[in-house]
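Weekly sync, protein design subgroup
Attendees: M.S., D.O., the rotation student, P.L. (late)

Item 1: inverse folding check
M.S. brought a backbone from last month's batch and wanted to see whether the design step gives back something sensible before we order anything. D.O. pointed out we never logged the input encoding, so this time it goes straight into the notes. Structure tokens as presented (227 positions):
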């Protein structure tokens, strides 16, 4: 089953509670946390996540684009995050961090920038609940999808299948009605969509349409029956 996670980075920050309710049919609500150090942008922090978690029944999927996630990740779980993604490029001890996230009751997820290969981290995969392949350079919404990431998505899906893991494979960046089928065919099953959802006249319908496209592409590709 394809999961659609609308990104509130593309929402109206003055109306976050309303914007969260506008996509209540979504599987998770993707929340980008940027610190203006790891990436050149600044978004929101623990207090906003805590308020948002109280304003919606949709579980929060936190994407930490920050330095020192080993220190900060636990605080976001306490604030209400159901899933926490840290960047392997920023983590001091990714295995220890993944285990701590899981121990605190959240899904542990690891993100890779476009230039970071998956192969060196093959042995870490059993420690994770989800892996995020960035399909743009992290830091800003609205960027164009990088087609050159499709082979990396395929290689990652092959590694997951080879090890027989129940590991979600998320893509984030430029996901839209024009690109989601290619991502699904390559092996992704969780899709972060920002402007494709919040830029639509009916965000809830956009979520449903994206999910349908992804599931059709997955069925045609056939990899979905491998796990």
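Designed sequence read out in the meeting:
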């Amino acid at each position: 089953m394809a999961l659609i996670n609308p990104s509130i980075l593309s929402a109206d920050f003055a109306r976050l509670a309303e914007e969260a309710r506008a996509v209540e049919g979504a599987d998770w609500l993707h929340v980008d946390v940027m610190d203006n150090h790891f990436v050149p942008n600044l978004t929101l922090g623990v207090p906003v996540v805590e308020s948002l978690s109280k304003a919606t029944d949709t579980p929060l999927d936190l994407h930490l684009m920050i330095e020192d996630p080993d220190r900060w990740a636990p605080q976001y779980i306490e604030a209400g995050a159901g899933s926490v993604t840290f960047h392997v490029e920023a983590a001091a001890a990714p295995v220890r961090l993944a285990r701590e996230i899981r121990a605190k009751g959240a899904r542990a997820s690891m993100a890779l920038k476009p230039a970071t290969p998956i192969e060196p981290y093959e042995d870490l995969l059993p420690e994770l609940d989800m892996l995020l392949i960035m399909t743009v350079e992290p830091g800003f919404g609205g960027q164009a999808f990088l087609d050159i990431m499709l082979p990396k998505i395929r290689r990652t899906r092959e590694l997951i299948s080879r090890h027989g893991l129940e590991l979600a494979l998320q893509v984030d960046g430029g996901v839209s009605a024009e690109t989601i089928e290619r991502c699904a065919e390559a092996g992704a099953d969780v899709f972060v969509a920002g402007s494709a959802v919040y830029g639509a006249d009916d965000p809830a319908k956009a979520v449903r349409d994206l999910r349908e496209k992804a599931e059709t592409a997955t069925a045609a590709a056939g990899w979905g029956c491998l796990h």
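Discussion: The chain has eight helices and eight strands. The CA atoms of residues 63 and 127 lie 17 Å apart.
Action: P.L. to compare against the previous round before Friday.
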